[in-house]
Design brief:
Chain A: It comes from Rhododendron griersonianum. The complex is a heterodimer of chains A (200) and B (906). With 200 residues, chain A is α/β, with parallel strands linked by helices. Chain A contains 5 helices and 8 strands, in the order αβαβββββαβαβα. Chain B is of the alpha+beta class. In chain B, helix 17 (301-317) runs parallel beside helix 18 (337-350), helix 24 packs parallel to helix 26 (483-499) and helix 26 runs antiparallel to helix 27 (503-517). The chains are: A alpha/beta (200), B alpha+beta (906).
């Protein structure tokens, strides 16, 4: 009997993993978010060229920033997310498009304290939305690094990213602090609900 | 035709690649794995599946080791063709090199080494550093450490500077003291490899490392032993005592089942023996080395051949080792011919008064076999023994005479050739046999045999009653004879005349001299004839003294190597070098000097497409791949006797990633003459009354040539070509006369005329005009204009160090900078452009990115040491190239731009 039910359930959600891309500029916190989501532990990454000195929490894991990609499977709210964390360095951004096909959702991570590069973040973001292959993808924005002084709040980030321009797409923005683990799962709740209701 | 037929053009089949792509992106792991397998299968049969790069790489982060290996295999194959995308794999390497599973760590490190993409090399240093743990503890798994050691050597090949900066060399040297013998062996292999590609001393064995190596020697795998022995053979022992100690530790290796180990041990012992003074010890060692060498001859013929070639060298240095073993070298009837030939050679070397009877019996036997080449060599061997062993000469000659009596044509001819040498060695001793020789005069048809016979007749004319008749019979066909025979005929006739100045010979000599002076094209023959003629006409007595002078006695030195060459070859025993009997530089291109330029060429710019990495791993018994380019292990090509390697079994199941390299990669064509596009026509046939000339200045091996093609489309033969160059900017002029044969109507001839510079320099501002005049005996003088391309003047030594480049750039005032835009030139690939420039001796210095532009810096040098500092700015794929140059001679800039444009446009 148990097997039959599993099959029933799985057929309701296709027994597949939702494919999610985590995108954003370098040093936005993508890899930390990925491992935070996966392990619920604080993970701090050290890009090979920028040295973190402001890091308040001693990290349990010291990972290099993704030059290339990380992929992990996260189980949340009965949905399996296949989360792809793509490196955000300028040199790698052109290759994001290789990962666009069959994507249900995008998590766009913004370093809310890096006001200088918000413009670049905006441009990259809108460029992604233009992509044909991502037409049906749901967009979740993390206004990350809220723990840092001078970080913009979600409203300000919404403004800076010109999110109001988004048409024909479900989106939402959440204030997060990946290092403290705040806001991440609220966002994921929204994402899983949207996907379940057929948004993806 | 109706519109319905359009359906034939639209197909529902998607084709293999899109199908694979879909499967690779499948959500099911099994399907993905199957898809990767299909991709690898397609790759193996030679289909291009590089377009699936990202899709395959996306499958890389997996728990499944099998899948991971497949993806890695794919990466190694295609990272080169997708250098930009290769960066996507970096993160996985970083993660895998920290994996708790040592297999995965090693796999990652090993794959990193095989990915020869410069762009990601730098990223790969961190993971490598982690495995070598330069400052901290080493990776606790020896397999990972040894893989890392090999990886350092490979990395050095890609980017030597990086390896040194990162301290990897020191780490590698520390690995020599590792407690695991496999790690030691691989560290030694890696260091030896690096040493070969570097001109600085990097790997030197000290007394400390010596004891480490000697300890590791007994415990490591057979191929590891080979590497350690090779390294030890380069060690210069401090004194005889130390040498003796080392040799003592190494002698047990002589009993090894693997012939590569045996040969390397022999090499090492021979090297150290040079230092050992005690004759007892030396005699003892010689005794010990004989049995293993003999054992090698019971292996397969291919190994026998390698062993024989090496033994050939060894007996030249120390004949005593095998003095009593000559029987081993007797040819068996079923030996392959190449083994027989080598055995003969060694038999001659080992022949002595003691064993000559036995040896002669063998030779005589061989001389009646069926293989012509072998028979000839056997006959020649008899002659060489006669020359070598005075006391045996008579016996040898009697054997030769017996052979002549068989009347087999080629035996007779060969015998005559060697008998001539015997006469030279023992003058006035065996002339009694001349009569026998003369019997077979008519059968001679080979030039060498004929020439030998004629020499004998001339030399002993006074004792041969009918010498004049004999020579006369040859004279009839004088004009048709090959040069060798003509020369001998000439000399023999002169000798005959001097010895018997009678009427017959007098007439003969007239005929011969006439033939050899007036009717011949051969300058050697003509010169010799004139000398004789003049001698005879001025002072016949003096001619007698010259022509009939006593000749020095010859000795047998054929196939003897020059002592210094022998030394070098002996230090390369057990490598291809000792098989070819050539020093490594003679057949391997990647020796130090060329290596350096090659490596610098691509310091930032990618990969030389043709040069396969010489880096090989000494992995397991299964992959004995040769190691060094300059001295690849010849023996290593042979199937390895299946000795289970004392290596953890985790070795066994890895895909033999290192096997991909060629064991015989050393045989690289050294210098293929660059045959470019057809030469531009400078004098069309319509202007030249049917003579068409195409020409261009070219640079080859650092020398400038004027490459010319003459085509005679006229109705008359043309000859007597001469060439003259007008004054020009570089003072280019011919270094020698133009050598063009007579051109019959409808034929053509091409020639390379060597050129010199700064002969007659035209004053005024530099220009590219080269005015040339060509004349021949039949036509008026033709004048035509050619263009000097600055490119041919760029010398091979134009490479600058980065620092020197910077300094020169700074030191030159801005007024010396000239720039120009080339709107029509598109740079599609930095690497391709750099390759193109490197061919013309413009050397890559550095590269940087400026916005979306690539900025390249190069250096070049024209004669008189005037440097050109070049800056090229372009956006990849978009037309438009900006070129700025700085030079002490900015007035040359227009010439430079013109040349560059022509180069890049093509």
């Amino acid at each position: 009997m148990g097997i039959v039910f599993t099959r029933l359930f799985s057929s309701m959600f296709g027994n597949r993993e939702a494919r999610i891309l985590v995108l954003g500029l370098d040093n936005a916190g993508k890899t930390t978010i990925l491992y935070r989501l996966q392990m619920g532990e604080v993970v701090s990454t050290i890009p090979s060229y920028v040295y973190f000195e402001t890091c308040e929490l001693i990290s349990l894991y010291m990972l290099d920033a993704a030059i290339g990609f990380n992929v992990e499977t996260v189980q949340y709210n009965n949905i399996k997310f296949q989360v792809w964390d793509l490196g955000g360095q300028t040199s790698i951004r052109p290759y994001w498009r290789c990962y666009f096909p069959n994507t249900q959702a995008i998590i766009y991570v913004v370093d809310s304290s890096d006001t200088d590069r918000l413009v670049i973040a905006k441009d990259e973001f809108h460029a992604i939305l233009e992509e044909e292959e991502l037409k049906g993808a749901v967009v979740l924005i993390y206004a990350n690094k809220q723990d840092l002084p001078g970080a913009l709040d979600d409203a300000a980030v919404t403004e800076a990213l010109e999110l109001h321009k988004i048409k024909n797409r479900q989106w939402s923005i959440f204030k997060t602090s990946a290092i403290k683990g705040e806001g991440l799962f609220e966002g994921l709740d929204w994402l899983s609900n949207t996907l379940k209701s057929g948004g993806g | 035709m109706s519109g319905h037929d359009s359906k034939y053009f639209s197909t529902t089949k998607k084709g293999e690649i899109p199908e694979l792509k879909e499967e690779l992106n499948s959500q099911y792991k099994d399907k993905r794995k199957d898809a990767v397998k299909k991709v690898i299968a397609a790759m193996t049969v030679g289909k291009d599946v590089s377009s699936l790069f990202t899709d395959v790489v996306n499958c890389m982060q997996t728990e499944n080791l099998e899948l991971k290996k497949l993806v890695y295999l794919y990466l190694i194959n295609y990272a080169k063709s997708q250098p930009d995308l290769a960066i996507l794999a970096v993160n996985t390497f970083v993660k895998d090199s920290q994996d708790p599973n040592p297999l995965i760590r090693a796999l990652a490190v090993r794959t990193m080494g095989c990915i020869r993409v410069d762009k990601i090399t730098e990223y790969l240093c961190d993971p490598l550093q982690r495995c070598l743990k330069v400052d901290l503890i080493l990776d606790d798994d020896p397999y990972v450490r040894k893989t890392a050691a090999i990886c350092v050597a490979k990395l050095y090949d890609i980017n030597a500077e990086l390896v040194e900066d990162r301290g990897f060399l020191e780490a590698l040297k520390d690995l020599i003291s590792d407690n695991n013998p496999m790690v030691v062996a691989n560290a030694v292999a890696a260091l030896a490899e690096i040493q070969e590609n570097s001109s600085r001393p990097i790997f030197e064995i000290t007394s400390h490392t010596l004891s480490k190596l000697l300890t590791a020697l007994n415990e490591c795998t057979e191929w590891g032993q080979v590497f350690i022995l090779d390294a030890l053979s380069k060690y210069k022992a401090a004194d005889a005592r130390e040498a003796e100690n080392i040799v003592e530790r190494v002698t047990p290796r002589l009993q090894h089942a693997n012939c590569a180990v045996v040969l390397s041990a022999v090499k090492m012992i021979l090297q150290q023996m040079e230092l050992i003074t005690s004759t007892d010890v030396v005699r003892n060692l010689c005794k010990k080395m004989a049995p293993p060498l003999v054992t090698l001859l019971s292996a397969e013929p291919e190994i026998q051949y390698v062993a024989l070639r090496n033994i050939n060298l060894i007996v030249q240095r120390r004949p005593t080792i095998l003095a009593h073993e000559i029987k081993v070298f007797f040819c068996k009837y079923n030996d392959p011919i190449y083994v027989k030939m080598e055995k003969l050679e060694i038999m001659i070397k080992l022949a002595s008064d003691r064993n000559i009877d036995q040896v002669l019996l063998e030779f005589k036997e061989y001389a009646t076999e069926v293989d012509v080449d072998f028979v000839r060599k056997a006959v020649r061997a008899i002659g060489r023994c006669a020359i070598k062993l005075e006391r045996a000469a008579e016996r040898c000659i009697s054997v030769l005479l017996e052979l002549i009596k068989i009347k087999v044509n080629y035996v007779v001819q060969e015998a005559i050739i060697v008998i001539k040498d015997i006469f030279r060695r023992y003058p006035n001793t065996y002339e009694s046999i001349i009569a026998t020789l003369c019997e077979s005069l008519d059968t001679l048809d080979e030039p060498e045999a004929k020439a030998s016979m004629i020499w004998i007749i001339g030399e002993y004319a006074e004792r041969i009653d009918n010498a004049d008749e004999l020579l006369e019979s040859f004279l009839e066909s004088f004009p048709e004879e090959p040069a060798q025979v003509q020369l001998q005929l000439l000399t023999a006739t002169v000798k005959l005349f001097l010895k018997k100045p009678t009427e017959g010979p007098q007439q003969m000599i007239q005929v011969v001299l006439n033939n050899a002076t007036v009717e011949t094209d051969n300058p050697d023959l003509r010169d010799r004839a004139y000398i004789y003629w003049r001698l005879l006409s001025t002072d016949p007595e003096a001619a007698k003294d010259v022509v009939l002078a006593e000749k020095p006695v010859i000795s047998d030195d054929s196939n003897q190597l020059d002592p210094s060459l022998l030394d070098e070859l002996l230090s390369n025993i057990a490598t291809l070098s000792s098989v070819y009997h050539k020093p490594p530089e003679a057949f391997v291109t990647r020796v130090k000097t060329t290596q350096k330029t090659e490596e610098d060429d691509y310091a930032d710019g990618g990969e030389p497409g043709y040069s396969e990495s010489p880096s090989h791993a000494v992995d397991s018994a299964a992959s004995p791949a040769a190691t060094s380019s300059s001295a690849p292990h010849a023996v290593a090509r042979q199937p390895v006797p299946a000795t289970p390697a004392p290596v953890p079994d985790l070795l066994g199941d890895l895909i033999g990633l290192d096997n991909d390299n060629n064991g015989n990669g050393a045989i690289v064509p050294v210098d293929i003459l660059h045959e470019g596009p057809p030469l531009p026509v400078v004098l069309p046939a319509s202007t030249g009354q049917g003579l068409q000339i195409s020409a261009q200045l070219v640079r080859r091996d650092g020398q400038i040539f004027y490459s010319l093609l003459f085509e005679n489309n006229s109705q008359i033969p043309l000859d007597g070509f001469l060439i003259q160059f007008n004054k020009n900017t570089f003072g280019v002029a011919a270094a020698g006369p133009l050598q063009v044969p007579q051109l019959l109507p409808g034929t053509s001839a091409s020639t390379l005329l060597p050129m010199v510079l700064f002969q007659n320099i035209a004053p005024g501002p530099p220009n590219t005009l080269l005015q040339v005049a060509v004349k021949n005996n039949q036509q008026p003088v033709w004048y035509f204009n050619d263009k000097l391309s600055l490119l041919v003047f760029f010398s091979e030594d134009g490479r600058m160090e980065r620092s020197a480049f910077l300094e020169t750039w700074k030191s030159l005032p801005d007024s010396n900078e000239v720039s120009k835009d080339f709107p029509g030139i598109v740079v599609n690939s930095v690497e391709a452009t750099l390759d193109q420039l490197a061919v013309s001796n413009m050397f890559f210095i550095a590269k940087r990115k400026h916005a979306n532009q690539d900025v390249l810096y190069l250096s070049a040098k024209i004669p008189r040491g005037i440097p050109f500092l070049i800056e090229l700015t372009a956006v990849i794929g978009i037309p438009g190239l900006k070129c700025a140059i700085k030079s002490p001679s900015p007035e040359m800039a227009p010439l430079f731009f013109e040349a560059l444009e022509n180069l890049l446009k093509s």
